[in-house]
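HUMAN:
Just now I want nothing more than another pair of eyes on a protein record. I would be glad if you read both lines and explained how they fit together. I have put the entry right below:
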Amino acid sequence: MDFFKIDDRLEEIGRAVESSLSHKFSEIDSIAFYNESKVLRAFIDNKISDAHFAGSTGYGYGDKGRDALDSLYAQIFEAEDALVRHNFVSGTHALSVALFGILRPGDRLLSLTGKPYDTMEQVIGIDDDNKNSGSLKDYGINYQQLDLLNDKTVDFDGIKHVIKGAKVAYIQRSRGYSSRQSLTIDEIEKITKIVYKLSPKTIVVIDNCYGEFVCKNEPTDVGADLIVGSLIKNPGGGIAQTGGYIAGRKDLVELCSYRLTAPGIGKEVGCSLGQNKNMYMGIFFAPSVTANALKVSAYSRALFQKFGFVTLPKDDEKISDIVSVLQLGSKEALIAFCQGIQSGSPIDSFVTPEPWDMPGYDSQVIMAAGAFTNGSSIEISADAPLKPPYNVYLQGGLTYNSGKISVLLAAQSLLDRGLLSFNDL
């Protein structure tokens, strides 16, 4: 390669891998076309114009761009209403607002997909040792989880034993920092049908992070009451600078808006501060950018499989999020991989990632994220907790070609340190 020092043999293997993925890439493009059509239809139906890009200040009363963006998201996600705001600071924040918005003291929150993502543990109050941090537990909200089966799949039969009386059934679509499969839309539909049959008043809430536009349908298409996500992941398209969304039943979205602002005020206030245009552009580009991320994901798995590494999702699994897991087997290989990804990032390529004590996690974490937007997971990024089996979680890629280069540089980083060998082929 003219611009990067990548072993010729590694490049040759990469070309063969790419050729083998043509059918998979065609499927990804077909889904992207469907989702881009859906998004374009929503822009047209909601009569979006440049007037919607104007920012507001102060209370933000009458911010037409903010309100139309809510309507746009609601149509795209087949929801009654949506709350899309730049002042959601993360996916965890949006999920926290949703749960605090609809749960009350004495209610029971039931996770049907085992232990949730690490950063949600303190929100819920799992193992918080009475820190009085303002968690759901501190407010008298009970928590229960239905553990996954030994094969890391949902315990569908077990739902009937725990669901009755639960106020919220919580489902995490993506795998998070675990080796379990991400949930398919079909599996989410199966869960919701079981829940509604046995406990009709239970509210189904989906952590939809990393899953938007990966499939043609979203959880709200198959019965979920609320979906929640981050705009620095899929729906922001690499353009939204911050933010998150909550979409679903109108009455529930209203309750969530009271938690974000104040009871009785809700969605009526909240200035957009010039962020509207970025959020509109982000959702418009999101299906294509998500498709690029899926191609980078498929390429990374196929390349590292050639060298004998275990990767997830497996080739026969349905893809439901943009996350790929590469089981690198050692702390050294994990660090080398992340440093290789960073070296191929457009921003901060000269930075060397090192493990650190990241808030909300129970072990040191290393993160490679040379992104235009700090922390954006839809841009090429790799992160991992430093603990066995030393899985690295790869996400994103604004463009397929730049993402592919970063993956090749990650492989080259392992090769340079003797952690990858052509003898393994």
